[in-house]
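Record 1 of the preview.
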Amino acid sequence: MKKLNKVLVLGSGALKIGQAGEFDYSGSQALKALREEGIRSVLVNPNVATIQTSEGIADKVYFLPVNTFFVTEIIKKERPDGILLAFGGQTALNCGTELYQSGVLEAYGVEVLGTSVEAIMNTEDRDLFVKELNKVGLKVPVSQACETMEEALVTARRIGFPVMIRSAYALGGLGSGHCSDEESFRQTAESAFTFARQILVEESLKGWKEIEFECIRDRSDRCFTVASMENFDPLGIHTGESIVVAPICSLSEEQVNMLQDITIKCVRHLDIVGECNIQFAFNAETNDYRIIEINARLSRSSALASKATGYPLAFVAAKIALGYTLDQIGERGTPNSAYYAPQLDYLICNLASAFIEAFCEKSLEELSIKSWQEYNN
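->
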């Protein structure tokens, strides 16, 4: 394991309602892991209202925007040995990718710890993502990555309406949407291109179940799913607006095992080292599936999975990024070992913010089964 003296950690930047709050947890866990190893930590995060920017968590904090200009200047000054990209959400991944592509990391000898930038790009770039999974016969939605409106329109007509638009490199599903005709497609695509330089036009899977797995893998190829989750709402409702249940309740054991096997095959092929989140569209009647996306980083689902299972995903992922294998984290042969997946004998339900807000406007007398049914409808 390479000796590291100083590591740069990229935070998620400014907080927005319903977005990025979970990265305070993941970043704090990463900083805790660095401190435990005696490695000096340098944090870039302009948000003063977080735990990770509190005194004593990081050795040095820069309250500056997480972008290539400021991070480059910090690298010149601090000269870190390594950099952690997976603990600040999409903002950190985008910044790290730009630093890698511009040659800044190589010029100053900064090693990307954990999942490589090449693997990150294979999950973030929609075109590369589809091509990589096609290599090993894994199913993804019929789609095409587009960089112009003209190209997007031609693709939508070829696939046939309804279609789904997804933005590459965007935060919180910005710009994504379901389009039933060409008029709604033009409006959604124009909006999507303001958030991202590339959009994915794909077949509509609206109404299929949305299933998620949190997966962990180390450099010795030990790999397993830590938690399984399903969205209360079918595909077509953004995860951030849906109720999430863990573990999966509505599928058979054979179906869950099938999706777990696909998850592990996918993670190994993409060579992800650390933690990742994979999202499926699944037709429970036919067992047909599509891999919607993979996040080669900590996400809101990771924070939920950690709380639900008691398995500290961010802490373990940070240790793996530093070179440890899963059998070296915690006490082997005890419940405190990171080597085995936790077993859930209880149910966790994470209510959507939209549901909570709707019910906060009602009196206690109105909170009835009828209200619940109205919300579902």
